[in-house]
């Protein structure tokens, strides 16, 4: 069972939509799926549906809602890619983290006492997943090809829960020197594990479209599933 529904902001002064996919029976935990710059599109909804099929409550918040609710764009269409960059530039990431926190809170409320919440994000969502590891009380965090994580390394002392980073080595948005900074800067953090994917580009684990690399996507997604099974 999957549908959009509304939840309250942390302040309780507004509501925004989240896509929720529920499993058959009682969920074993919840997973917040954090969108790319393309919104909560079909690919992100499919990821939620897949987590629900694995027994999790899956929730994807519509993070661009303050500017434009229900953005749904296709990375393979040049005009839509440009539109996505436009939305990203207008997006307030600090506010986005508060909306993610509100989503964690809503997921925990549905799970009941002791329910754990993992977060997984892609692209912009990968950066936000790392920020969430530093700033929210989620229980486990996964970032696929997060952009600009090197600029967030000064926040890593706040990480107290497990974090998994998937890094394609030929990422057009994350140059080799940035990847080096990530590896160097995080190598002593016992909470963080990094996996490199040789020769692969940004978006290799997209659920659909030209960017997907089937073999690598399955490898990364398998690691993510094992990670959540261990920590949630």
TrEMBL record:
<feature type="domain" description="Dienelactone hydrolase">
    <location>
        <begin position="16"/>
        <end position="231"/>
    </location>
</feature>
<dbReference type="InterPro" id="IPR002925">
    <property type="entry name" value="Dienelactn_hydro"/>
</dbReference>
<protein>
    <submittedName>
        <fullName>Carboxymethylenebutenolidase</fullName>
        <ecNumber>3.1.1.45</ecNumber>
    </submittedName>
</protein>
<dbReference type="Pfam" id="PF01738">
    <property type="entry name" value="DLH"/>
</dbReference>
<dbReference type="InterPro" id="IPR051049">
    <property type="entry name" value="Dienelactone_hydrolase-like"/>
</dbReference>
<dbReference type="InterPro" id="IPR029058">
    <property type="entry name" value="AB_hydrolase_fold"/>
</dbReference>
<keyword id="KW-0378">Hydrolase</keyword>
<dbReference type="GO" id="GO:0008806">
    <property type="term" value="F:carboxymethylenebutenolidase activity"/>
</dbReference>
């Amino acid at each position: 069972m999957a549908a959009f529904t509304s939840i309250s902001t942390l302040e309780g002064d507004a509501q925004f939509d989240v896509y929720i996919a529920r499993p058959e029976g009682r969920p074993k935990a919840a997973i917040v799926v954090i969108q790319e710059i393309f919104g909560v599109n079909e690919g992100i909804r499919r990821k939620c549906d897949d987590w629900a099929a694995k027994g999790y409550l899956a929730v994807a918040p519509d993070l661009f809602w303050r500017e434009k609710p229900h953005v749904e764009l296709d990375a393979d269409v040049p005009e839509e890619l440009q539109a996505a960059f436009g939305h990203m530039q207008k997006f307030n990431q600090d506010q986005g983290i508060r909306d993610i926190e509100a989503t964690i809170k809503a997921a925990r409320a549905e799970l009941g006492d002791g329910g754990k919440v993992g977060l997984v994000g892609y692209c912009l969502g990968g950066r936000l997943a790392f920020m969430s590891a530093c700033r929210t009380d989620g229980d486990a965090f996964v970032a696929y090809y997060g952009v600009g994580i090197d600029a967030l390394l000064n926040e890593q002392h706040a990480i107290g829960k497990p974090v998994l980073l998937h890094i394609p080595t030929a990422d057009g948005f994350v140059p080799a020197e940035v990847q080096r900074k990530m590896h160097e800067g995080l190598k002593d953090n016992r909470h963080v594990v990094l996996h490199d994917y040789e020769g692969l580009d940004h978006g290799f684990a997209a659920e659909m479209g030209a960017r997907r690399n089937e073999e690598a996507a399955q490898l990364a997604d398998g690691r993510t599933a094992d990670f959540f099974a261990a920590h949630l």
